[in-house]
């Protein structure tokens, strides 16, 4: 086996690696944030608030989990928020027209997956950088959604459908169960399957990956399709949670999803990171915003704090990579 092949197909990643150390630090950060908030606010440790944090973290995770695979290939999907909006509006329309939540769910998932697949085609077949391709797609989707909705709002969905985003099972919000399912699936796929290892290899060195026989284009199509499908899933959760859909539903979702990925330790340079880390990143981001709300900090400061956290996460990533070289 050549050195190139060895570089492309690294041994299966395990939690006895640098990833484990990074995850430990992030878990420690989450614990410290919880400790500080517990001291500063009597409401933080209430059951209602804890469940609310878990629910909000799960909503961010659904979008960020698929995005993690894209970033692992050194790509970026800036269209996820707009994808959520269009998928939610189409799903809501189908539910209203047919009275079938099942058809609406399939519509949302299909719309999200198709958008992701188109992104993948632009990146692989048209050789458009992912940043430009998905940024352009963001505007296309925004335009389509605003045209389609024409200023209208869809609301009033069946009670059974609303349980997906608002219901509880054995005292836990249903989105938390979905989070656990997809966290397990995503972690197993990325860490324990050949396809997952190939995605890491592409992010680490796409040229070496191609020379070692990895079908780079097909794997990139896969990760963008998965990212889009997870955005479609998120659209269903948001639709059932809010019980309404309008054209601007996804405008505030893209940056928090990217922030969760970066805070969780996935490198923008590709090849480093875990889906579990993204969950921790979503949890940290949610804890910070929840704490600011409990402490009555003006909402105007929340974007600033989020931006600072993201900058620090990227800076720490770059510093860690330099030390590892």
TrEMBL record:
Keywords: Cell inner membrane, Cell membrane, Membrane, Transmembrane, Transmembrane helix, Transport. The keyword Membrane applies. It is a multi-pass membrane protein. PANTHER family: ABC TRANSPORTER PERMEASE PROTEIN YPHD-RELATED, ABC TRANSPORTER PERMEASE PROTEIN YPHD-RELATED-RELATED. The keyword Transmembrane applies. It comes from Bradyrhizobium yuanmingense. Its main location: membrane. It is found in: Cell membrane. InterPro entries: ABC_transp_permease. This is Ribose transport system permease protein.
């Amino acid at each position: 086996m050549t050195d190139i092949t060895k570089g492309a197909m690294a041994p299966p990643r395990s939690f006895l690696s640098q990833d484990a150390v990074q995850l430990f630090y992030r878990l420690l950060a989450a614990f410290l944030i919880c400790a500080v908030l517990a001291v500063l606010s009597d409401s933080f440790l209430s059951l209602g608030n804890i469940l609310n944090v878990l629910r909000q973290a799960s909503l961010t995770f659904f979008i960020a989990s698929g995005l993690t695979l894209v970033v692992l290939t050194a790509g970026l999907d800036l269209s996820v928020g707009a994808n959520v909006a269009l998928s939610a509006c189409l799903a809501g329309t189908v539910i209203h027209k047919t009275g079938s939540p099942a058809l609406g769910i399939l519509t949302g998932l299909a719309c999200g997956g198709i958008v992701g697949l188109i992104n993948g085609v632009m990146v692989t077949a048209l050789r458009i950088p992912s940043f430009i391709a998905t940024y352009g797609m963001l505007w296309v989707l925004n335009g389509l959604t605003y045209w389609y909705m024409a200023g209208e709002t869809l609301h009033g969905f069946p009670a059974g459908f609303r349980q997906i985003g608002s219901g509880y099972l054995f005292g836990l919000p249903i989105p938390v169960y979905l989070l656990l399912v997809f966290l397990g699936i995503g972690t197993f796929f990325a860490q324990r399957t050949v396809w997952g290892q190939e995605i890491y290899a592409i992010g680490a060195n796409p040229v070496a990956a191609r020379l070692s026989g990895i079908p780079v284009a097909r794997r990139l199509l896969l990760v963008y399709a998965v990212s889009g499908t997870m955005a479609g899933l998120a659209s269903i959760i948001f639709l059932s949670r809010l019980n309404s859909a309008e054209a601007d539903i996804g405008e505030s979702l893209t940056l928090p999803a990217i922030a969760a990925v970066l805070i969780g330790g996935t490198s923008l340079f590709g090849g480093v990171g875990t889906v579990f880390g993204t969950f921790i990143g979503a949890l940290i981001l949610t804890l910070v915003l929840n704490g600011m709300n409990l402490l009555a900090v003006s909402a105007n400061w929340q974007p600033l704090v989020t931006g600072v956290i993201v900058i620090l996460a990227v800076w720490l990533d770059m510093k860690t990579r330099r030390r590892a070289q």
